[in-house]
Amino acid sequence: MLEPLRYLLLQVRNADDPMLKQEVACFAEILESDISQIEVFDLLGGPLQEHDLIETDVVLIGGSGDYSAAGEGDWLEMALDSLRLVHDSRKPTFASCWGFQAVARALGGRVVHDLEKAELGVHHVRLTAAGTADPVFGPSGPVLQGLMGHEDTVIELPPGTELLASTERVQNQAYRFLDRPIYCTQFHPELNRKSFLGRLQTYPKYVEKIAGLSLDDFRHSIHDTPEAAALLKRFVQQIAPLHLDQT
Length: 247
Hints:
Strands 2-1-3-4-11-10-9-6-7 form a nine-stranded mixed β-sheet, sandwiched between helices. A two-stranded antiparallel ribbon has the order 5-8. By secondary structure, the chain is of the alpha/beta class. It starts with 6 loop residues before the first strand and ends with a helix. The mean pLDDT is about 95. Helices cover about 35% and strands about 25% of the residues. Helix 2 packs across helix 3.
């Protein structure tokens, strides 16, 4: 029997953020893993080191609460250095939301804060030709739905990547690195309706700011997005195992 995968979740959240534990539980549920399989590393507490990756099979990066990948600061420079280390390690990595943006910036892309491009809730994500041919994205069909909440936008992808999907408002919604097993999505494959609403209850200001609605009114537009969840599962089932013996 195969040993269960060991995950390392890189987090950028305040110590009192209730989403610290919720994020771990969300990844565990979608990946059908035990919470004990997911170790957490706090990127706000200091840079990742090579020894932190030794016992890891798959790296996960999710949202960030109140932190932006488009800003500046010592904490961000340390976090970006940590993501460069992950890239150099060639560890199988799946990054969503803040992770999508931060990986792009760390490896030479561009991220900006742009409320006109902000998206919140369920949005239709259309695959590019590369996405349709991709083993992770292709089985979803030409269009899938994804849960997302962002004000920062990746306006330029890093070198050595290919665009996998776009929305009507934002071109860069998903990309992968061509020479290593790293996939990144602006939307949240690790969340379902219940957990997404939990995020909004913790950060309600974003609902009014982006959608111009109260949380009670906005909640009716949210539903599960199983096609997006399947992306993360296929990555772990199909892509990660091909690279575990090479890292």
